[in-house]
Design goal:
The protein is of the alpha+beta class. It has three domains: 275 residues, Alpha/Beta hydrolase fold, catalytic domain (Rossmann fold); 90 residues, Immunoglobulin-like (Sandwich), CATH 2.60.40; 92 residues, Immunoglobulin-like (Sandwich).
């Protein structure tokens, strides 16, 4: 029996009609679902979920979102790389929702601005806990792509092409081939000028979280799933199980319920233009079982159009190996999707014994060629309420974002230039360099540079420049023909003559 949230079923024959779904079954008098006991997780360390640095005529503005700050943070900036100098610094305490905004007005108009975000109150020397860093060149907003520019990972094939869906938060009913039930959909507050992905989250048995959408246990609050989805620019789908007696996806007819879920997702795709490279399927307890035991083996096969081309499958407490023999997996989602488990070592789901075990599920997927990882929490039990925090961190780590350049340096050598930086949201870049400004459209010298998937580092060296000349450079993504300028420029700068 799966642990979950719900009420004890004591009668012999239960008939219940709920939100359009009717289900008759013989109830087992021994079957029970404990009332949820929300667990307050310990304060997490601060992390930056988004940041934007913008050049101004006399300085720089930095806006962003800092999760779990629990106090003040400091932004330090300088017109030279921050390798230990004091620079200019300002402290602020992020708002309740984690947002912050600071402005500096002490730079010359042509200088590059280097910045770093530190935990704690400002001091005359840089702090030891650096949460994020980057730079913005003298060209206005050089590191920020235009709002209408598609993500680097987006292509026509990745888009669902849907239209007509409400851009509001709704509770509605969907009727599939066999089953009918309600679903929550949160479409308000998303930036539709940028790629929007899908976060489909399945609650545990009893469905306490989606039955109580205003409580911080699952959906509401700064770290609730609704705010997580909006911060990550994901359309949140939180469906109710068609099984309204046990309020569970994993009891009675999980294969049929998974077919209903697939039909619901494809119907959503027809109403919203979503990016299938930014798909997140997650669940807790019996919801985790749906993801690893049914949805992946039942839907992500070569016999069906892929609902996901890249993204994340996330199991929180439980998540065993497939419940049926899996057909040939669709090669694109298998190669790109990251499959991750998060479980406590005091949760019975962590054991290898039985199909429900998270460790056994991770072992099966890894052995069969999927990209996997698992987080085991020392002392962690099954009952928990950190779903939003876990999901937010996994998305930030494993799901493609709009391509951007973080901290980077360009160094002039006697015969050329060396460039090194952090690159996000793409697996490779085109680095272009020239002895004259690249605004004239010239090809210059160019290199296709891979981005390390773990460290996000990219490095390249040019060695064809005449001594005594400056080097101008720019980073491009989505350039199918690097012999000429093209694609999207996500960062640029220059290095004076050596």
């Amino acid at each position: 029996m799966l642990l979950g949230k719900g009420a004890r079923l004591g009668g012999a024959l239960v008939s219940r009609i709920y939100r359009g779904a009717t289900l008759l079954r013989q109830a087992d008098a021994t079957t029970s679902f404990p009332t949820p006991t929300p667990v307050t997780p310990p304060p997490a360390g601060p992390s930056v979920t988004s940041d934007t640095a913008t050049h101004t005529t006399s300085g720089m503005t930095l806006t962003g979102v800092v999760a779990d700050a629990h106090g003040p943070v400091t932004v330090r900036t300088s017109s030279s790389p921050l390798t230990g100098q004091t620079g200019f610094h300002l402290s602020t305490t992020p708002a309740a929702d984690g947002t912050l905004s600071l402005a500096f007005t002490a730079f010359t108009t042509t200088s590059t601005r280097y910045w770093q975000l530190e935990n704690g109150t400002a001091t005359t020397t840089p702090g030891t806990t650096i949460l994020a860093s980057g730079q913005v060149s003298a060209a206005p907003a050089a590191t920020t792509p235009p709002a209408t520019t598609p993500a680097a990972t987006t292509s026509t094939a990745a888009s669902t092409g849907g239209s007509g869906g409400e851009l509001t938060d709704v509770l509605q009913t969907f009727s599939g081939t066999e089953y009918s039930a309600d679903y929550h959909l949160f479409a308000a507050g998303l930036d539709w000028s940028k790629p929007v992905g899908l976060l489909c989250y399945i609650d545990g048995s009893g469905e306490y979280g989606i039955e109580n959408p205003t409580e911080t246990y699952l959906l509401a609050g700064t770290h609730g799933m609704v705010e997580v989805a909006k911060r990550q620019n994901l359309l949140l789908l939180a469906p109710f199980s068609p099984n309204r007696v046990e309020r569970s996806w994993h009891h009675d007819d999980p294969e049929g319920y998974t077919t209903y879920l697939e039909e619901l997702i494809r119907w959503i795709y027809g109403r919203y233009d979503l990016d299938r490279t930014r798909f997140v399927g997650g669940g807790y307890s019996s919801g985790a079982q749906v993801m690893s035991r049914y949805l992946t083996p039942q839907v992500l096969t070569v016999t069906k159009p892929a609902i996901a081309l890249d993204g994340l499958i996330l199991m929180i407490s439980f998540g065993g190996h497939p419940a049926m023999a899996m057909g040939t997996a669709n090669p694109e989602p298998k190669a790109n999707l990251h499959v991750h488990w998060d479980v406590g070592d005091q949760d019975g789901a962590a054991g290898y014994d039985g199909a429900y075990g998270a460790l056994k599920g991770e072992d099966w997927y890894r052995t069969n060629g999927w990209k996997t990882s698992i987080t085991v929490i020392p002392g962690g039990a099954h009952a928990r309420s950190d779903f939003g925090l876990v999901t937010d961190k996994a998305i930030s780590r494993y799901v493609s974002r709009v391509a951007s350049v973080g901290a980077c340096t360009a160094t002039r050598t006697s015969t050329g230039m060396t460039w090194a930086g952090k690159v996000y949201g793409t697996s490779s870049i085109t680095l272009r360099a020239s002895a004259s400004p690249l605004s004239g459209g010239q090809a210059g010298f160019y290199l296709t540079v891979p981005v390390d998937a773990t460290t996000r580092n990219a490095t390249a060296t040019f060695s064809s420049f005449t001594a005594g000349t400056p080097c101008y450079w720019q980073v491009e993504v989505n350039n199918p023909t690097p012999t000429a300028q093209g694609g999207q420029v996500i960062a640029s700068g220059s290095v004076p003559a050596s």
